[in-house]
Amino acid sequence: MTFPKGFLWGGAIAANQTEGAYLEDGKGLTTVDLLPTGEKRWDIMFGNLPSFQPLEGEFYPSHEAIDFYHRYKEDIALFAEMGFKALRVSVSWARIFPNGDDHQPNEAGLTFYDNLFDELLKYDIEPVVTIAHFDIPVHLVKNYGSWRNRKLVSLFEAYAATLFKRYKDKVKYWMTFNEINMLLHLPFVGAGLVFNEGDNKKQIQYQAAHHQLVASALAVKACHEISPGAKIGCMLAAGMTYPYSCNPEDVWDAMDKDRESFFFIDVQSRGEYPGYAKRFFKDHNLIVEMEEGDEELLKNHTVDYVGFSYYASRATSTDPEINNMTAGNVFGSIENPYLEKSEWGWTIDPKGFRITANQLYDRYQKPLFVVENGLGAVDQLTSDGKVNDDYRIEYMKKHVEEMSEAIKDGVEIIGYTSWGPIDIVSASSGEMKKRYGYIYVDKDNHGQGTLARSKKKSFDWYKKVIESNGEVL
């Protein structure tokens, strides 16, 4: 038997991409609520925010999303029909503390997540809860400068402790920051950073990173004290980088690019800043300000497991003549001639999944949790209302096979929550046509549609995978 008994099969979603109801029941405005579709979206995600309020004439997909806020019972019933053992969700910080610095939490927000977790537990589905998943209260960005400000450390600690106290009897698995390394690639999305002309962006990003790392350690500390039986992890946007050739310069460049991401997890999992990061700061004249006690906090409160997303591998070359770039979950990459690509240019590399899992386990020797993996594709409804997504089944099948091989290699994996088990708003592009789900949602890129749910062909396929604990693919 490859997959262990109790393996947590399921799916993963995020509040800002599913819930909608963006100002309902006292919820405050979040950073994602300021991301429109179209050309302005990317500019804002890089930190060039034109307004702290939604603008007239723009379409903001997070405002309604797929209305999970009102339809979660219907959706969870479908997840239960597939046999889910776990559902990864996130809590919207602004539902609990609308401004982020409120003295008292919003009871309506707390009650919503009580009801959500109760509905999951009714079907014996474990909630796997991300505390911060790309949505920061706008008030904190406007009035504090978001994570560039040390004040957010204590505000996040208070927010996390509120969750642990309220849901300690319902949630066994927590994660602090979703894809924490995204701070370096999409600073507004990852950390709510807005830049002004003349800013030293690297200095601001790494100072914000330090604040998030300290906040993560404090959340781990609080979780272990308030809910000793729970497990709390970190989360990396993973996918190893291949050298384009065996030129030692390419090999070094690939290692350097991987370390850019490993830096965060090295601190969260090993408890200290690695030597290569200290050299990077010195070489780039970066001064990361730390307070007394920070190093002890990081050392004494490391995570219990390492969560990661895997969609694609990357490749890099130091040869200026090789510049055929392709996309891949925001990370730029040289096109790999040995791999196929998705409709969005992301490389399809199942073997890279196994390599990445081994790489992470060798590095950290802590349990891994695959909390995102999937294929974004344009799905076509047939005349009888079906979606024959064999391409998705093929993608998932090959990745689950390689995860199985990783487990045989000795890699300890807690579970697998594939990304977007129901169609949701794309985090990067804001599109609905980039679909990941086993469940189709009737909505288009312009917000039109009935929001009706229907099962795709992959729904029954994944149900059999879970029923057989990964033996039938």
TrEMBL record:
Q: Which GO molecular function terms does the record list?
A: 6-phospho-beta-glucosidase activity
Top class in the EC scheme: hydrolase
E.C. no = 3.2.1.86
| UniProt similarity note | Belongs to the glycosyl hydrolase 1 family.
This protein's encoding gene = ascB
Q: Which domain of life is it from?
A: Bacteria
Can the keyword Protease be found in this entry's annotation? no
Arranged from A to Z, the UniProt key words for this protein are: Glycosidase, Hydrolase
Q: Which SUPFAM superfamilies match?
A: (Trans)glycosidases
The record's listing under NCBIfam families reads: PRK09593.1 (NF007158), PRK09852.1 (NF007356)
> Keyword Signal on this protein?
no
Query: What is the designated name of this protein?
Result: 6-phospho-beta-glucosidase
Q: Name one GO biological process term.
A: carbohydrate catabolic process
Q: Pfam families annotated for this entry?
A: Glyco_hydro_1 (PF00232)
Provide GO CC annotations from the record. Answer: cytosol
